[in-house]
Target: SH3 domain-containing protein
Amino acid sequence: MSCDERPQATRGSEVWCRCNSRGHLISAVHSCEADANRQRFCYWSRELSSCLPRQAPTTENQVDCPKALQSLPTTLHRPGLLTLAAWNVEWLFDGINDPLPVPQMDAAKVSSKIQAVAAVLQEIGADIIHFAEVENCRILNLVAERLNGSYNPLMISGTDTHLRQQVALLTSVSPTASLTRSAERVELVAHGRGQGESTGLSKHLIADFSIAGRQLEILGLHLKAQPHQPDARLKREGQARIAQSIIRKALEMGKDVIVLGDLNDFDSEVLGPSGEVPTSSVLRMLKDVDDDGRPDLWNALSRIPVAERYSSWYDRNHDGRFQYGTERELIDHVLVSNSLRNAVVDVGILHRHDPTIVSDHWPLWIRINLEALASATPYHSSAEETRPSSRKLMTSVPGRDIFIDFTAAWGVLAAGLLLVIWCSKRFGSGERAARHEKEQPCPLMWMLLPAFSSTMTTIVHSLVSATAASCFRALQVVALRPPEEIPRTASKDAPISPVSFGWASEEQKEKDLVHATAEALPELHACLDSLRKRLQQEKDTAPEVNQKLRIIATDEDKMSKDDKREFIMFEGQQEYDWERQISLKMKEQMRKRDVHTKECLQRVSRALNRRWRRERDREKARSLERIDALIKAMDATEAELDRIRKEHLQIAQEQVDELESERRRLQEQTRVLMGAALVVRQEKARINQAWYAEPREKRALTFQSLKIIRRLHSDMINFPVTAEFKQKHSVLLYSLRMLEGRLRKDCPTAKDTDVQEGPLEETPELKAQLDQVDAEFEEQLAADIDELRAVSRAKAQRAMAKEAAQRRLAAEEYLAPALKEAADAVLRSERAARRTEIAEDLLRPVAVLSSQLGAEAFRHEQLHKGNCEPASFGPKRKRQEASLGKTLEVVENLLTQLDAEEVKKIAAAPSTLGKEPEWEEALEKASRRWKLFCAQHPATVPEEQETPRGDKTFSAQTSIASTLALDSLDGLEDEVEEAPKKLPPPPPRKQAPNRPPSAGSSRPPAPVAKPSAKPAAQPGANPQASGQSTKKGAALLEKLDELSATMDRTLGKNSALKSTTQSVGGRGLKPPGIGKGKR
Model:
């Protein structure tokens, strides 16, 4: 019943409720019941309500379930089958005063999640459900109510004070006692940690049940998260040591054990679909609780197909979306003791709910057949099996039963244990003493030799066999240890191996399989050699049989001849039977041990191969992606440089078009003005010619010149001249007006309408001069365009160099390191591949040594267990000699296989597995292109030199226009100065022909100057000269204006020429009058 179903009586912000003994809400009341055991109050949030102990703080939600549990009838959901489930329900909190890490949820979301959880559990139909990440018993009650109230909630508070997560049970089977937990703590001393730091098993519970007459203990765990973090791995292993102690005690008490929950680690023997390997030894520790190398618990999930063997969603890219292929992991497990293995009939993981909504874990379940459970063989602890009365040590794995007789004294066993520990630690010492090189036995073994000399051969065999087995396990750990980074300093052509001596530091060598194996073999050789000496000593010093004692023991003196014959035949038959029996047993032992050795080697090889392929695929994809990014950056740089080049080319073309257009426009005006000047010169020559002609011919020539000059004057007045040529245009107009005034005086009968019609005649001389001007113009224009384009190309090259340098520096900082990283990754991949290739070959000698020594230890155990020699109370001499001979043969053969130099030869062989043509080709192409890119584009660009002139600019004014020589206007300044004066009288008719008077000047005409082909002066290059030219032009124009005014006054205001006045260039020019001049 919820608080909102009854009238509420509030007291401040609290709603007071009546609770029953189980903590369930009965009704809302004004005060609490008087019974102190039921004095509770509740928090109310719509349908969520539960009772809390009154003395509990209002902000504390860590509420245990009541101690007095309701006794439920043991009714299984499936008759004859006990179903257990484990599920991490991911923050199943009630939304009231939750800690900050909890996703904040209102009552509606909490109710929806509870409903989803209940729906999944109903589909499984489990009898005992283990939860992880629940808050308190209140939330368990809500789940139980949704499951029709057929479950009892069980919870004991843990020590997770930060997240306040708990583990709990919902069970329909009544336990035999309340839940318990362990308060044990262990110190963390590893990876540089000091003493004093410890950890405990914060989230766990221990529940005991009586099922089918068997005592069943359930250990529910939720271990430290973050599988890949070193600190978390260390704490998780510490928690596993505490769990080991709990499991070991339960097994020693003869209980069946089930360990289930979120262990946050992987099992090397039960891999998920992603192939994740363990990051710690948690699963190994939990399965082998007595650390004897034989599993005590079995992972039931091994029966699930690999494709369906996943229990957790790991959002690797943090995008909040479940990606089926890459985000599945197996970190939840169900481990059962070997006594329950045959009783487990079904195992599964229910993958129905959406991991992004309900929980990021999926529930596991197993079903146990109660009939098979009742008939299962109880578990016997290792301590019981190692007593002298127990000869056979059984593991649960078929083919791995090992027979060892531990009848030695505790002192010798302790010495053997010290030997195992010392030799194991020697693998990582990195020291090579002279005694190793001389193949001397290890010092500890020499200390044990006196004990060996007085110890039974069985004990000696057991010690050396245990040493070999410990070495083999230690080397397996070294082989499976993730390799650390080793910088390669050897040549590129050197063979790839897990470690080549000289490539790595001494610290790294200690952690490598090759170095560890090379260091272990001399130690094992010394131990084996000591064993050989002990066996040889045993064989050489075998005591003779005392015949008297034999006669007394066998009563031969009382036997008849027939009895003696029968006795001898009986002993012969016994010897034959023993030899046959021991031969069969040894074959079976060797078969089992060979199978075990092969499985161990294959397991290491598979794990290394899987790790290599996973790392290779990840590194390859990452390297190719980064290499592709570098190539794309170079492509983008080339594209940008091409864009800059085209942009500058387009700008240069626009400048060329502009320059050419302006130059041709100015050339056109220059050509017109120069043509007019040449016509003036031509007409002056005609006037000079008319000066010496007859009067009639003179009039005709003068009249013809007048019409041409009038036509030319009219054309020049109407000609739209640009500002650059206004000065020359004014000079030309002034010259034409003066010439027209004089010709008009010589032709008094001429009318104002007498103007030359049609186009003016172009003489060959005029045409040749204009053609020469055009050719020089085109040549100059082409030279200027080429120079302009060269300047533009230089600017483009500089801009491209700057852009390329900036992009190269950015690529060198962010992208180019990908080449070195890719090369290192290729090297690591080759080394890992080589490690995979040779691991089995490196471990095989030690594995064979461990296997064969174990078998020989079994032989001598059987020898001592057999019939004794009546006279010596020891093994029969014949059997003993045969066993010692066989063992010596095996030991001699094994000694030849323990060669450290052979290990180095195996490691030095080149790798055939780690070649990646695609990867290496991509790396080579990218490196080659990057090298070419760096050669083409330097990282630094020289600073641009600044000059006083700066960059050269091109004027649109043609060089011909700036140097235009109008030779017909020479002496203009003299004429201007002499214009107001009286014209001199004409010369006599018969004057010397060598110097005729000119029509506009007292000097003969100067030869026509050719237009200059030099480049135009740069604007701003000579400011002083430019200023002088401007002042000179202004003074000349001022004189021309004064002269025009004087000529107008002389000719009169009503001159007919005034009608031809027009505005040219925005300025009205009046035709000058004809002054007094020379005739």
Remarks:
- The two ends are 142 Å apart (CA to CA).
- The chain has a mean pLDDT of 72.
